[in-house]
Amino acid sequence: MDLVKKTGPLVILLALQLVLGEEVARYDNYKVYQVTARTKQQLETLNDIQMNSDAYIFLESGHKAGDKFTIVVPPHKLADFAETLENEKICGWVINSNVQQSIDDERNRMQSKRLKGVFDWTEYHDLGEIHAWLDKLAAEYKEVELVEGGRSYENRSIKGVKLSYKPGNPGIFIEGGIHAREWISPATVTYILNELLTSQDSSVRKTAESYDWYIFPSVNPDGYVYTHRRNRYWRKTRTRYPAGCFGADPNRNWDFYWAVAGASKRCYAESYAGPKPFSEIETKSLSEYINSLSGKIQAYIAFHSYSQLLLFPYGHTSEHTPNHDDLNDIANATVTSLAKRYGTEYRYGNIYDAIYPASGSSSEWAYGAQNVRLSYTYELRPMGGYNGFVLPPEQIIPTGEETLDSLVTLLEESEKRNYFKM
């Protein structure tokens, strides 16, 4: 009893993990730099570090001169990194010298909340809690059916739900959590699902009842569990590869212009595309599930963080899609709607130009391989900064509210352009 009083739940959790052989990654003395690539040479230097070093974590990246990078630098690389900045005359400064503190604060809050056994949107939830909540919805609402988009490498369910108020509706596919550390994504997806079931707002009710919704809060379950138990900044799957390497980037692993741009062939890299398309059982099995819905899905919407962006294909090339103008106009109306509630400003555009080249993504595969003409990716709050992935839980509900506002507009604008003919 005295041990509990003196240490608290976080220390007990860490001690239990060590006993079980689960060493927890810590970020003591890791510093976060924000740097600006003002020239092409500086940009190439930073991109080379990102693609070829396993030590750094790039929270934000750029692909043109003038873009900012936000980079977590480990203690043993601080001198090397500072020297690189000096030699290349790259302007940079430390914006956080204690990465571990924000992680500790988050874990302490979650442990305290979990003891109350409540599922709401005042705190983040682990995979077991999310899956139990989906089970509860299916038991309570006749409109909700549990569905499975496959299994993970560690044999976890890629669990989702189908929400349908009447037969014959066009289908909307919503994907969350493909990058494990982006916790605001599953939180936002579950918030939207809850509102589609319970909101009394007339526009939300109309939107909810006009479509069949296929909603998957966490399509990278192994990675998400790993961020809760071992390494808060983990991004990839947990597939075991040779030489002690784990995981591929599940948003670079889809079979549409796979590994053409913005993806690494190095297993240790965060953007590792995998040894081949659909090498990851998560992407392969989810794609097979989506294939089973061929012709049903009329819109594919993925939720990521962070940067406050609304993106659409293409990512593998700067060439525009045949319906680029429609996608652009719909995005413009969507981000305008999103800003009305809290003033949150989003930028928008095709992936290649608006953020960086990236091929093999789920949303681009949906567009190019499944002929889903409406395919969007949200990069949720915040705009930037050192705490991007560790977003305070106070922002979950505001993020959900403004995102739902924008989603209603996105679908209304798409309806006006006759995108939902079945």
Walkthrough of the structure:
The protein is an alpha/beta fold and 422 residues long. It is 40% helix and 18% strand. The chain has helices at residues 2-19, 40-52, 78-88, 99-114, 127-140, 184-198, 202-209, 221-229, 281-292, 324-342, 351-354, 362-370, 396-416, and strands spanning 31-36, 57-60, 68-73, 91-96, 144-151, 157-163, 171-176, 212-216, 240-241, 245-246, 297-305, 309-312, 347-350, 374-380. The strands form 3 sheets. The protein has an 8-stranded mixed sheet with strand order 5-6-8-7-11-14-12-13, sandwiched between helices. Strand 12, helix 10 (324-342) and strand 13 (347-350) form a beta-alpha-beta unit. The termini are far apart.
Query: Roughly how many Å apart are the termini?
Result: 63 Å
Largest sheet descriptor: 8 strands, mixed
- How many strands in all? 14
Strand order of the largest sheet: 5-6-8-7-11-14-12-13
Helix content: 40-55%
- Rough shape? globular
How much is the radius of gyration in Å? 21 Å
Summarize it.
By secondary structure, this protein is an alpha/beta fold. 40% of the residues lie in helices and 18% in strands.
Features:
422 residues; alpha/beta; eight-stranded mixed beta sheet; four-stranded antiparallel beta sheet; disordered N terminus
Describe the SSE topology.
Blueprint: H1 2-19, E1 31-36, H2 40-52, E2 57-60, E3 68-73, H3 78-88, E4 91-96, H4 99-114, H5 127-140, E5 144-151, E6 157-163, E7 171-176, H6 184-198, H7 202-209, E8 212-216, H8 221-229, E9 240-241, E10 245-246, H9 281-292, E11 297-305, E12 309-312, H10 324-342, E13 347-350, H11 351-354, H12 362-370, E14 374-380, H13 396-416
Parallel strand pairs: 7-8, 7-11, 11-14, 12-13
Antiparallel strand pairs: 1-3, 1-4, 2-3, 5-6, 6-8, 9-10, 12-14
